[in-house]
Design goal:
This protein is an alpha+beta fold. It is built from nine helices and nine strands. Helices cover about 40% and strands about 20% of the residues.
Length: about 220
């Protein structure tokens, strides 16, 4: 199978990198950013991309050389908006959003909306410099990723996108571009079992230890 896949990729002038073990989400991408490229797209396998999404994304990046990282407009599979931009989180925000039952979330609806920047995001206006963007779709300029040294390998899964967003904002600009549309069919760590919940908690602690704790 590996030989077949490699032939397919070679015929399309792409590079197939085989990694026999799983070093983690971010560390896996670090293997690729050493190759010569202008852009590096991070995309989840459960993401459906609109036919014109990549073209629109690349055109925006070419028109705005100050943009080092682009994030799209996203919906869940049922059409509900998924807000990929976030303000700096508190521990309460993360636990509420990730694990609280629906009736509890309803009690804190305005707080969650503020955390998810609902007051600033829509389906037609570009928003510059959101503090944090989701790793389900990140289009980077490769040189920005290289300057950052790639993803922090201390994050095996979860919060590597929070960390790299904050670091990327120090050397370039981040843009939310709603003309780039995707549908996310996955997510929700709380629905994936105790192993994912444990990894989420461990990475959350790592994130706050690096960037500073906020509880409420």
């Amino acid at each position: 199978m590996e030989v077949i896949v490699k032939k397919i990729f070679d015929s399309r002038h792409l590079i197939y990198l085989n990694c026999p073990d799983n070093p983690g989400f971010g560390a896996g991408h670090n293997l690729a950013i050493a190759t010569a490229s202008e852009y590096h797209l991070i995309i989840n396998p459960d993401l459906e991309v609109a036919p014109d999404a990549l073209q629109n994304a690349l055109e925006f990046m070419e028109q705005h050389p100050e943009c080092g990282l682009l994030t799209p407009y996203a919906t869940w599979g049922d059409g509900e908006i998924q807000r990929l931009c976030k303000r700096y989180p508190t521990v309460f925000d993360l636990l509420l959003r990730g694990f609280a039952p629906a009736f509890v979330k309803q009690l804190f609806q305005s707080r969650l909306a503020k955390y998810e920047m609902a007051d600033q995001l829509n389906d037609h206006d570009v928003l510059w410099d959101p503090p944090i963007v989701s790793g389900c779709f990140m289009l980077f300029r490769t040189d920005v990723l290289q300057q950052l040294g790639g993803f922090d390998p201390r994050f095996f899964l979860y919060f590597e996108d929070f960390d790299i967003s904050l670091r990327a904002a120090k050397i370039s600009r981040i843009a939310y571009v709603p003309q780039v549309k995707v549908v996310h069919h996955g997510g929700h760590a709380s629905r994936k079992g105790w192993r994912h919940i444990w990894m989420f908690g461990r990475s959350m602690v790592t994130f706050f230890n690096i960037h500073g704790w906020r509880w409420w």
